[in-house]
Amino acid sequence: MFLYLALCVIGWFNIHSAVYDERYPDVIGFHTNYGKQFIWIIAALSLAGIILLLDSRFFSALAPVFYGVTIFLLVLVLVVGRNVGGNQAWISIGTFRLQPSEFAKYATCLLLARYLSGVNIRITEVKSFFTAAAIIFFPMLLIKMQPDDGSTLVFCSLIFVLYREGLSSYFLILGALFIALFILSLLFKAVFVIAGVMVVAGIIIAIVRRNRRWAIITLSGLILSIGFTLAVPFVYGHIIKEHQRVRIDEWLRLTNDKKKAGYNVNQSKIAIGSGKLWGKGYLKGTQTRFSFVPEQSTDFIFCTVGEEWGFAGSVVVIGLFVFMILRIIIIAERQRSPFSRIYGYGVACIIFFHFFINIGLTIGMVPVIGIPLPFVSYGGSSLWSFTFLLFTLLKLDSNRMGVAGA
């Protein structure tokens, strides 16, 4: 709870600094983003209190209902949703905009935990694996149709939940291999990538030549790798959208356009770097005050931290997130209930993905993907969704000595 409150307070101060308007010095009200965020934080604390008063069995029992409601909202937003920034992801309710994709993460974690904790469910069995994959994939598909690529990718992090519950590490290795091949195929000609793969496969086969099983696996991997490498140019040129290709090209340094495609990240680096060790001080960031970085209160909120609080402040924020994620994993591991353990790992995966990708994009480590920094970025739906995720786990943990199946 302390970590949650600390990040919410840090987030509000940085939102206040990023969008401060001298005409509206009051911190409460809907005239400004920091006024709205203050109200949403108070509402989030109220929701957290309600969650802690509920019976722990409530979350498992109603997981299918939560999932069904969010699926309905994801379909509804495609019909009546409001288009903002090219994404039809919001449902307008008066002056408030609800983003169903944020709550879909919470509902998916609950239903996935309920299913995997069921009797005779083994993730190593084909039926169980595909059912669990369907629970994750269905909201992904609807969110992709908005299209909200950032939120879609967040659901991919839940594969680590399946891995914790017994999914073979071969899936993770295969996924990492395809990602590496995709990047290498963009950086080098296909013939060089294929030659490198063949050399690596040859070395592995020479080492395990007496183990027929591993030799067959290596040969199968070689064939898949060659086919995937040859398919990358088509996929990249015809399936991946142009604005996504532009961001990837800029990230891989295939282009160098700091005035257009690379503008956001370049200005972000300037803002963070200009903070030096101790920062410029609260409300004194020039990049922040003069709006050089777009979306600075949402996707690029970490720029404000770096510029005004410097390296020291950045380390504090990163440290709080690392400590929170480690605490969530510890809490998940000590659960007696499989449902609580699986849910806890789902929370850890989602928060880590948001944390790593959001901060990574501000410093150029990953391509620009529009996802918020948990508890820190501006947004009511995001804050409430993460509040649900975290405080549901705390409630389940408070009952870990009770009924094992709760």
What spatial order of strands do you see in the largest sheet? 1-2-3
Biggest β-sheet strands, sense, barrel:
3 strands, antiparallel
Helix count equals 17
Percent of residues in beta strands:
under 5%
The structural class is: mainly alpha
Form type: globular
Helix content: 55-70%
- Radius of gyration from the alpha-carbon trace, in angstroms: 23 Å
Low-confidence stretches: none
Number of strands: 3
Order of helices and strands: HHHHEEEHHHHHHHHHHHHH
Give the overall pLDDT as a whole number: 90
Distance between the termini: 22 Å
Question: How are the secondary structure elements laid out?
Answer:
Blueprint: H1 2-18, H2 33-53, H3 57-61, H4 63-80, E1 82-84, E2 87-93, E3 96-98, H5 100-116, H6 126-144, H7 149-154, H8 159-164, H9 169-187, H10 190-207, H11 212-239, H12 242-251, H13 263-274, H14 286-289, H15 301-333, H16 338-362, H17 380-398
Antiparallel strand pairs: 1-2, 2-3
Keywords:
3 strands; 406 residues; 17 helices; globular; three-stranded antiparallel sheet; single chain; mainly alpha
Structural account:
With 406 residues, this protein is mainly α. Helices cover 68% and strands 3% of the residues. It is built from 17 helices and 3 strands. The protein has helices at 2-18, 33-53, 57-61, 63-80, 100-116, 126-144, 149-154, 159-164, 169-187, 190-207, 212-239, 242-251, 263-274, 286-289, 301-333, 338-362, 380-398; strands at 82-84, 87-93, 96-98. Strands 1-2-3 form a 3-stranded antiparallel beta sheet, with helices on one face. The protein starts with a helix and ends in an 8-residue tail after the last helix. The relative contact order is 0.14. The mean pLDDT is 90.
